[in-house]
Specification:
By secondary structure, this protein is α/β, with parallel strands linked by helices. The chain contains 14 helices and 13 strands. The strands form three sheets. A six-stranded mixed beta sheet has the order 4-5-13-10-11-12, with helices on both faces.
Length: about 425
């Protein structure tokens, strides 16, 4: 076996992160019988180091088929046996941006923005969803389901439509941004508005796995994380496999924390990189159970009633907690917080740089700024901040910040109203 797509792939297994029990690849339950979450254990690729990097580089500019995807380009490290039957848009291939005004705001000389809002449905969720839905079709699932604050639902509805599978999407009645709900409805997902928060939705949809026989595609699904690993693999490839000092990202349900740690662990083991970047997870201050746990050395798993304008990370009991703890510990990482005003100001700076992002994305920039001020990130270190979603995911909040918020925020771009005269226009235009 060569480990190259198109030839027989070595078997992978799902392994409990708690008791280490193994399950076959076609197991559809997201949990071990002990209650622990499962990880996909990838077989060791036979190609290593430069050979593996060369294989991926050769696919970088493919414009059709599964290798046009920034996920399936790395198929040997994701789900090798499924590449040729992948349910793909394609996704990935997102830019790594240098914006001096954002760097100056954050207080970092060498800050790059990995913008996942350039994915087909406007968020990083597409990377995980392409793998999860591909796996769902492989195991014969007839219906898919998720709990969501918006982005997961939008992605599931789109990929479910692409795969020809029904999509059941549970949403907090009062907790989804207008842009995201519009996407879910437009893509044909079956929307269920739940009188509760995200955590209530997730509890309910987990019960539905047994009661209704649906295939769960939240980030507790280990195949979701395999797709999300490619955010890190792709940014490392864009940096010629020279690892940055830090990778900073927003943290809600902690799927990305788990995926990023796994990606770095495997990339180091397989010779793609020779050192591990540090991870920094950033939570909104009003939805920061993981940050509270980090402060007490992860001795206690905290839960909170989440309150933040950043709806994508408004989660009080993150499901991927155990896997995320491992990622932070293995990378000598940190967990910090940012207030809602700090997040919105950071978002305004990112937006004004011509980049644009949803509120939760800007938590990464607010977090970099805080960590730089605290001396945890040094001014000269190389930092990649992940922007997880597109500007238009939450247009209502954008217009409120710029046009209505009082007192006027520091970076608000207030519209001006005039009479239809050249005198008034000239006064404003100066």
């Amino acid at each position: 076996m060569s480990g190259i797509v198109g030839q027989e792939a070595p078997a992978l297994v799902q392994r409990c992160v708690r008791c280490r029990k193994d399950y076959p690849a076609d197991n559809i339950r997201p949990n071990c019988e002990c209650g622990g979450l499962l990880d996909v254990e990838q077989p060791q690729p036979e190609l290593r180091n430069g050979e593996l990097r060369s294989l991926f580089e050769g696919r970088r500019h493919v414009d059709h088929g599964p290798f046009a995807s920034g996920v399936w380009r790395f198929g040997e490290l994701i789900l090798a046996g499924a590449v040729e039957r992948a349910v793909t848009q394609p996704e990935g291939n997102t830019p790594l941006l240098n914006r001096p005004t954002v760097s100056a705001f954050a207080g970092i000389e060498n800050l790059l923005l990995k913008h996942e809002g350039h994915n087909p449905t406007g968020s990083f969720k597409d990377r995980g969803m392409t793998v999860a839905v591909t796996q769902a079709r492989r195991v014969g699932a007839t219906a898919l389901a998720c709990a969501t604050t918006g982005n997961t639902g939008a992605s599931l509805a789109a990929y479910g439509a692409l795969a020809g599978l029904r999509a059941l999407i549970l949403v907090p009645r009062d907790g989804i941004a207008t842009g995201k709900l519009a996407q879910v409805l437009a893509y044909g997902g079956r929307v269920v508005l739940v009188r509760g928060d995200f955590d209530a939705c997730l509890r309910l949809v987990r019960e539905a796995v047994d009661e209704l026989g649906v295939y769960l595609v939240n980030s507790i699904n280990p195949f979701r994380l395999e797709g999300q690993k490619t955010i890190v693999l792709e940014l490392l490839q864009q940096l010629q496999w020279q690892a940055p000092d830090w990778i900073v990202f927003p943290a809600g349900n902690l799927g990305n924390a788990a995926a990023f740690g796994k990606a770095l662990r495997e990339a180091r083991a397989w010779g793609l990189i020779d050192r591990m970047p540090r991870l920094a997870a950033v939570q909104a201050e009003g939805a920061a159970p993981f940050a509270r746990s980090f402060r007490d050395g992860f001795r206690t798993r905290h839960q909170v009633v989440a309150q933040t304008v950043a709806s994508a990370i408004r989660i009080g009991n993150p499901a991927s907690y155990d896997r995320a703890v491992t990622a932070i510990r293995e990378t000598d990482g940190v967990v910090t917080t940012a207030t809602d005003p700090e997040i919105l100001d950071a978002k305004a700076v990112v937006d004004a740089a011509g980049v644009g992002c949803e509120p939760a994305s800007a938590a990464s920039i607010a977090g970099v700024r805080r960590l730089a001020r605290e001396g945890i990130i040094s001014k000269g270190e190389r930092v990649v901040a992940v922007l997880t979603g597109h500007l238009l995911k939450d247009p209502t909040l954008v217009t409120w910040y710029h046009a209505e918020a009082e007192p006027r925020p520091a970076y608000a771009n207030r519209p001006a109203e005039i009479e239809p005269t050249m005198t008034d226009l000239a006064r404003i235009a100066r």
